[in-house]
Amino acid sequence: MEKGNRYTGVSRQDWSFDRMGEKDAARHNDKVKEAIKGNLQDVISDGDIITSDPKSKKIIKIPMKSLELPKFRYGEPKDGLGTGNGDGQPGDPADQGQGNGPGAGDQPGQEYYESELTMEEIQAMVFEDLALPNIKPKAAGEIESEEVNFNDVRKKRTTNNLDMGRTVLQNMMRNAQTGKARLANISPDDYRVRVWEEEMKPENSAVVIAMADISGSMGDNEKYLTRAFCWWTVNFLRTKYPKVEMVFLTHDTDAKEATEEEFFSRSSYGGGTKCSSVNKMALDIMQERYPSDRYNVYPLHFSDGDNYGNDNAECVRLVNELLEKDVNQYAYVQVGRSARSNLFNKYESDIHDDRFKALMVDGKQAVLPALKKVFNPEESVAK
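Given the sequence above, the corresponding structure tokens read:
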């Protein structure tokens, strides 16, 4: 090469190996998230959660199976190590005076560890698959939800929210003014950052009419399942639809409108049950305050199904009338029982409308699947 000649070479280095740790960590975090999602059915009905402030900074510990990383095991098993057969005879009590555990065995157990999540992180996992079904444009003023948009780029002397492309371009333009456009000597004056503003996103007006059976037949388990389902429903709506309206009704043989606090705490001792009373009140409230030409209406009824026998036909008539008044969905959730009640069977046999849903929540693990069926995102846009 002649003296004074300059050559420019371009080389490419494979950095994939250097990023393996980062990729492994991301993969591990994805597996942890999957494992947590697998436990959500138990988590969301936990009493410590549904009685806490949804905006609290409380840390929730979730037990999950350990994710064992591959590793080498050296050496061979040696005689005399580990736990084997003892001197006992069949029928001898094991571990006398040491508790009632199953005793020592020769197989390894399954290790568990606790993953710590905030309430906000748990809610994000639960709510990501939920939406109001069959929502339609209505004549009433639109409700609004907050949405953050990065919609501007400005000069700023810090690297927060740095827009790398714009920063590089600004540096090259500055260098071009002094001779040659090149990337060199980046200074704080070259920084370009993305800025955001909170934008109000219009949503169609909606109201959820929550109805709870508080009659004497509703035991502690039924009340607990109702409270768990409603707690997540209320917080889902306030998270994804901050301006949605809610109406709370309770009933035994008579229906009453309640505050949110009364709805979650009111009970009746020894009272009978007429589910038609709350359906009638829901119909009246809808006609007087939330007509379907102005609102998306979602009645949601919780009961153990132990209804006064002659009242079942009236319940069917009123639910059909609500559907004729164009509610977006009517959901009946039977809580506590594993067998279908007479009311449940009557609803299923006499109501033939895709907007009607009858579900059973017979235990804590059924709460999450029922939530996903009631708030089904596949039905979130009317066809």
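The chain is about 30% helix and 20% strand. Try to locate this feature in the token string yourself.
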